[in-house]
């Protein structure tokens, strides 16, 4: 890998990884305007996630853990898959209804992180990474990443679907209207 390409991948990994890790840290502790674990848990509970503590923990692991993994280039397929899972839930459960633009709380920001994680999952972390330093480059295979990413998307889908409000039966709706 050329010096320029390795340096570019390192820069992108550091900026994107540390940005998403900081976003995840806000979900763990009330830092920089973030809700902290209890605030995040309460927010997810209001959105219908049960048990909310589990889903909050998964969000923290996906964002904070995945972001640090990406920034360091350590266990990159696992970290990238964690980010993909967290961003899939963020897009479809929280931001989709607001449209694309982040100024309106849309999915623009989450989609960008999902795409960066997907790209690093496909191509690996580059030469300047802990995976390369420790000889873990054999982990950076497309099949392994695709399996991990698919599992992350399945878990995200379970979260989105299971947190939907129960449909109101016609007899209940008419009795509430009376």
Describe this structure in words.
This protein has helices at residues 3-28, 36-46, 52-72, 76-95, 108-123, 130-133, 142-162, 170-177. It is mainly alpha-helical. The protein has one domain (23-164). The radius of gyration is 18 Å and the shape is elongated. The protein starts with a helix and ends with a helix. Belongs to the DoxX family. This is DoxX family protein.
Write a short abstract of this structure:
It is built from 8 helices and no strands. It has 178 residues and is mainly alpha-helical.
Keywords:
mainly alpha; DoxX; DoxX family protein; 178 residues; transmembrane
- Whole-number tally of structural domains: 1
Helix and strand sequence: HHHHHHHH
DSSP summary: helix tally: 8
- Low-pLDDT parts are none
- E-strand count: 0
Strand fraction: under 5%
Question: What percentage of residues falls in helices of 4 or more residues?
Answer: over 70%
Largest sheet: none
The overall pLDDT average reads: 93
Structural class: mainly alpha
CA-CA gap between termini: 71 Å
Which shape, going by the Cα principal axes?
Answer: elongated
> Could you tell me the radius of gyration in angstroms?
18 Å
Write the layout of secondary structure elements.
Blueprint (H helix, E strand, L loop, with lengths): L2 H26 L7 H11 L5 H21 L3 H20 L12 H16 L6 H4 L8 H21 L7 H8 L1
Main location: membrane
Keywords: Cell membrane, Membrane, Transmembrane, Transmembrane helix
GO cellular component, one term: plasma membrane
